[in-house]
UniProtKB/TrEMBL annotation:
UniProt xrefs under CDD domains: OmpA_C-like (cd07185)
InterPro entries: Bact_OuterMem_StrucFunc, OMP_bac, OmpA-like, OmpA-like_sf
Pfam families, sorted: OmpA
Domain OmpA-like residue range list: 144-258
GO CC annotation: cell outer membrane
Name under which the protein is recorded: OmpA family protein
Keyword match Membrane: yes
Compartment(s): Cell outer membrane
Keywords linked to the UniProt accession: Cell outer membrane, Membrane
Length: 258
């Protein structure tokens, strides 16, 4: 399996500088997070590594951090741990830099909604004495071609199963045309459910539905190596799960151009 490398650079220079640069790839293959720089002690290093392992998986993290007699800003380790999270994985082809109390986040996200939500989440995570400079953009050209197919429609399945409904298959036939227009691009298929029922079972069902979509597209001659899947269950609702209409909107398939 080809591994895309994501570099994360940590730097303490003299008294204050920590430079955390996450060069985010965007392929369907596993990302390799390369962490390098200088920190003042073992505990700081381990805190950073533990958070990276939890976020990206230990097998995807390459540790090149050095320990030297340098001084860190107060609360730096805690601030860094807060910004290394699952929301960071939404940012593609980008970089996260933490330099002293200044945090810069650059990269591409799925759509304007994700851009707004991600920026607000990071602003809410950092301490009051830190400054966030978010420069996120939408992965526009190819993503717009894909989004235009859905037109606020939902790829539907038979109730409680991963069997495509006829209406869902019809939308996917249109998606085949769009995917051929962005030929060569990697696309992640993301399954979502509403909050009804068991949360763990919803994760499994959303994964199965994403797999069903992938298999359907492959049957229509879309290259398998360009497609990846993810099942998020009910963890990322876009509407109120307390209403029938909201639950219907939350049961969805998304396509992310990587």
């Amino acid at each position: 399996m080809k591994i895309k490398k994501t570099c994360l650079k940590l730097n303490y220079i003299n008294k204050i500088i920590i430079l955390l640069s996450i060069c985010l790839g965007g392929g369907v293959q596993a990302q390799s997070i390369i962490v390098e720089g200088v920190v003042p002690n073992d505990s700081t290093q381990q805190e950073i590594l533990n958070k990276l392992y939890a976020t990206y998986g230990q097998k995807n993290v390459i540790n090149r951090i050095q320990i030297r007699q340098v001084t860190a800003p107060i609360g730096w380790s805690n601030a860094v741990n807060k910004v290394i999270n699952d929301d960071l994985k939404k940012v593609k082809q980008g970089k996260l830099t933490v330099k002293g109390s200044n945090i810069q986040l650059i990269g591409k996200v799925l759509n304007l909604h994700e851009m707004d939500i991600t920026t607000k989440k990071f602003q809410g995570l950092i301490p009051a004495n830190y400054h966030l400079n978010a420069q996120l953009t939408v992965n526009q050209a190819e993503q717009q071609i894909i989004d235009a197919v859905l037109k606020n429609r939902i790829v539907e399945f038979e109730s409680g199963s991963a069997v495509l409904a006829a209406s869902g298959a019809k939308i996917l036939d249109e998606m085949v045309i769009a995917l051929n227009k962005v030929s060569g691009k990697k696309v992640r298929i993301i399954g979502h459910t509403d909050s009804s029922g068991d949360a763990n079972k919803n994760i499994v069902l959303s994964q199965q539905r994403a797999e069903a979509v992938k298999n359907y597209l492959i049957s229509k001659n879309i290259a398998a190596e360009n497609l990846s899947v993810d099942g998020l269950g009910s963890t990322q609702p876009i509407a109120d799960n307390l209403t029938a209409e909201g639950r219907k909107k939350n049961r969805r398939i998304e396509f992310e151009v990587l």
